[in-house]
Amino acid sequence: MLLNLFNKKNKPNPIFDVLGVDMHSHLLPGVDDGSKALDESINCLRALAQLGFSRTIITPHFQYPRFQNKEYDIERRYSEFCTQVKQAGVGIELAGIAGEYRIDTGFQARLDNPQFLKVGGRYVLVELSLHHQLMGVDEMLFDMQMKGYDVILAHPERYPYITLSSDRYERMKDAGILFQCNILSLSGFYGPDARQKAITLVDRGWSEFLGTDTHNEIYIKAMIEASHNRTVQRVLQRHQFLNNQL
């Protein structure tokens, strides 16, 4: 089991009970670059419970052409997964299936025939390319809002082409886009640039949500370390987030 890898001085610290809900994870087995097997998903869910989370929303990737998932198939797989998780008794509630939708060259077709799986039944979680800026992103975000969607941008701190010195973050906030920073960004898991941007966005009050973005047991190990991280602890003590409203 995963937690046998950790000694008594590095046990999960249940500080994330103030969030209650982890609203970003990839623990539906075998559908994206997240968990590959049921046992791995079960181990991760048990660890999230020990970290203080009481509920979790799973958000598999919808990304063209890499992960061409279909909503009806994801819902079917999730229903089966719920039964398996209940039988395993993991100590955390599965609170819904949503999606992390990549705004890419195939996104406009998806927007023309929307079947979005929403976070908390309300929000569409979107992400951008982690490597290069796609033209027309702002227009597609605006189009989503005009169609009545409440949009959350996943891990805004992880896009290297959006810098704190630009006005891009401020323009998205002024447009009503919600942000979800990754907890592991705050602890330095994605490097110093993402860490600094995540801290700044949170301190500005621009990150309405935090998420684990858990993919596998490597992320869980990092989350256990993050539960003892002073920056993460400070953020949870000083700021309020909307996770527990989902």
Give an overview of the whole structure:
The protein has 246 residues and is of the alpha/beta class. The chain has a single domain, classed as Metal-dependent hydrolases (TIM Barrel, Alpha-Beta Barrel), CATH 3.20.20.140. The protein is built from nine helices and nine strands. It has helices at 38-50, 71-88, 107-112, 137-146, 168-174, 183-186, 192-203, 217-226, 230-238, and strands at residues 21-22, 55-58, 61-62, 93-97, 100-102, 123-127, 150-154, 178-182, 209-211. The strands form two sheets. A six-stranded parallel beta sheet has the order 3-5-6-7-8-9. Strands 1-2-4 form a three-stranded parallel beta sheet, covered by helices on one side. It is globular and about 45 Å long. 41% of the residues are buried.
Highlighted features:
246 residues; alpha/beta; TIM Barrel; 6-stranded parallel sheet; 3-stranded parallel sheet
Structural class computed from helices and strand pairing: alpha/beta
Distance between the termini: 30 Å
Question: Helix amount, in percent?
Answer: 25-40%
Radius of gyration: 17 Å
Q: What is the overall silhouette?
A: globular
The secondary-structure element order is EHEEHEEHEHEHEHHEHH
How many discrete domains?
1
CATH fold label: TIM Barrel
Total beta strand runs: 9
Second CATH tier, the architecture: Alpha-Beta Barrel
The CATH homologous superfamily is named Metal-dependent hydrolases
In short:
With 246 residues, the protein is α/β, with parallel strands linked by helices. It contains nine helices and nine strands. The chain has a six-stranded parallel beta sheet.
